[in-house]
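hey so i finally got around to running both of the ones u sent me last week. sorry it took forever, my laptop kept dying halfway thru and i had to restart like 3 times lol. anyway pasting them below in the order u listed, first the sequence line then the structure token line for each. didnt double check formatting much so if smth looks off just lmk and ill redo it

first one:
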Amino acid sequence: MTKPPPSVRRNRASLTYKLRYAAQNPDKIGSYLSRVARDLKFRVSSRSHVAYYRAVMKSDTARNPEAAVGSRTHERWLALGQMQFDYLVGHGLKPDDRILEIGCGNLRAGWRFIDYLDAGNYYGIDISPDILLAAQHTLVRHDLREKLPHLALVGDLKLRFLPSRHFTVVHAHSVFSHSPIEVIDECLAHVGRVLAPGGFFDFTFDRTEGTEHHVLREDFYYRTETLTALAERHGFSARFMDDWEELPHGQSKIRVTR
């Protein structure tokens, strides 16, 4: 593994970090307090993390679907989607591959996969009906209806309705960074069933080399060994993707295979 950047040693949940950040960024205090108030409201009204984060996505998508998936500008939305696409193509993605994208959002990378893959070979799922409506608009904007992509709303990551041993590539970008460990465990417990022989599952995560923590219930930070050990308990081999670290993105990536 490459030498970790200083950012992975921060504990963003600590009072010291929050006070220092507030002193350095006074203009962001108001927006953070708004997030805290929203967090308290959604915690009270949501029975599960999926329900909680669905409410977060509804709120964020109403303001800006591209910002809801973590892109502050359209240019950044395009760049992050291109980065994900180029990475998988560089790792051997072919048009006849069959992709399952977990947390497809408004198709930031998905529209490029759909355009590249053979018709019918893209399947995107998400917990948010609001962001899936935005995904439909992306399909229309890029004139990709004839590629027959599948988009489905889910309430968990058990993947029960999907065919066994079907997908050669499973991809989850910026999903586990918003998930408590029990949601990640659920996904890893079931994704092996839908993976085709020789297939792989790539997922990104917010990495910490210190204490694992979360900010509100939106952003979760894990040690690499926590997630690789969890994957191994479900029968996978797990590999930290060093070459992903060289790209201009704040998250890290792990690839799991049978």
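and the second one:
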Amino acid sequence: MTTETARDRLIVGLDVPNLKEAEAIVSALGDDILFYKIGYQLVFAGGLEFARELAQSGKKIFLDMKLLDIDNTVASGVENIAKMGMSMLTLHAYPKAMRAAVKAAEGSGLCLLGVTVLTSMDGDDMLEAGYQADPHALVLSRAEQARAAGMGGIVCSAEESTAVRAIIGPDMALVTPGIRPVGSDKGDQKRVMTPADAIRAGSSHLVVGRPIVKANDPKAAARAILDEMLTALWPANH
């Protein structure tokens, strides 16, 4: 892994309440960060146009919308999101929705990611939601379905990365949120892993939000994570 590929693989989550804060973070991080995630919080504060502007400026955007609806609605949404120049888009890994999205995204270059099980959920949460399978079993089942549907990648906890990678093969993206550098607060995440361990486990992209955007020095925090990602494959390269 080179510095350039580390920049391609670290996705900073712009999980902030308004555009002013998002713009300040992007400005502070400068050229060190290439990839940003924009989700519900910022989308509903003018973030869609901001996402388009960032894409036009050369940044990569992971639009985290976790789409799920009837086939036609999912397809229509995906078609328009692809036209915005987004790099990645999430949808819940339900087979019908994934098949509709894949067809709608054909030829666009948009990488569709299937969300398996949210990293804020553990076994008790799954039972409460009506699922009989434990999180690990459901993640693996949905990974198989995503591969069969022709999706571009998977979103899962880094704890499942090795097992998921064995199912989806070397080419699909494996995006892991819940990344926490050593010593940082887990927050509301229940299944977390350090950046280096996640890369070693098979993750291709890491989503890091609060440890960077809430840091006293976001640029230094981002650089430390990039350095940690580089060390994960350092022995293999020397």
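quick thing i noticed on the 2nd:
The chain is about 50% helix and 15% strand.
anyway thats it, ttyl
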